[in-house]
């Protein structure tokens, strides 16, 4: 299975990613997740603007997927916390996201992500998050 096929299969295991229609594009070692526009993704149809939760979910999915690749893990990391900065209104067009793994420790990883439409230099949102990596036994010692 090619890395692109592995990513597609991995995203297919996440029901919310399937619901959103998210797809992965892998070029070299750069992962971009693409959220194709669909009317059901609108939060405010009067503007129209994408729902903030959809944009946040795209960035979190991107961070989790990028971290799984970087840590060479077959399992997805678990989210500890994430913070979002919504910088611009998401228009009714395709949205893209990339993540950067800042640090992978023994148990916790630090990841940043950005989402944009059209021009990457003008992000519509940014995310910073901490994720649980490693095996569950290390994270939950038995007493």
TrEMBL record:
Higher taxonomy: Bacteria, Pseudomonadati, Pseudomonadota, Alphaproteobacteria, Caulobacterales
Annotated Thioesterase domain residues: 50-122
Keywords carried by this UniProt record: Hydrolase
GO molecular function, one term: acyl-CoA hydrolase activity
Keyword field contains Transcription regulation: no
NCBIfam families, per the entry: unchar_dom_1
InterPro entries per the UniProt record, alphabetical: HotDog_dom_sf (IPR029069), PAAI_dom (IPR003736), Thioestr_dom (IPR006683)
Superkingdom field: Bacteria
Pfam families: 4HBT (PF03061)
The name this protein goes by in its record: Acyl-coenzyme A thioesterase PaaI
Keyword Hydrolase in record: yes
């Amino acid at each position: 299975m090619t890395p692109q096929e592995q990513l597609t299969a991995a995203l297919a295991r996440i029901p919310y990613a399937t619901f959103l229609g998210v797809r992965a594009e892998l070029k070299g070692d750069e992962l971009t997740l693409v959220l194709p526009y669909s009317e059901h993704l609108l939060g405010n149809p009067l503007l129209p603007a994408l729902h903030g939760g959809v944009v946040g979910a795209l960035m979190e999915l991107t961070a989790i997927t990028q971290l799984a690749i970087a840590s060479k893990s077959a399992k997805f990391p678990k989210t500890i916390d994430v913070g979002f900065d919504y910088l611009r209104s998401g228009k009714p067009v395709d949205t893209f996201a990339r993540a950067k793994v800042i640090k992978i420790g023994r148990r916790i990883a630090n990841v940043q992500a950005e989402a944009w439409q059209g021009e990457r230099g003008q992000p519509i949102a940014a995310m910073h998050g901490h994720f649980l990596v490693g095996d569950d036994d290390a994270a939950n010692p038995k007493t």
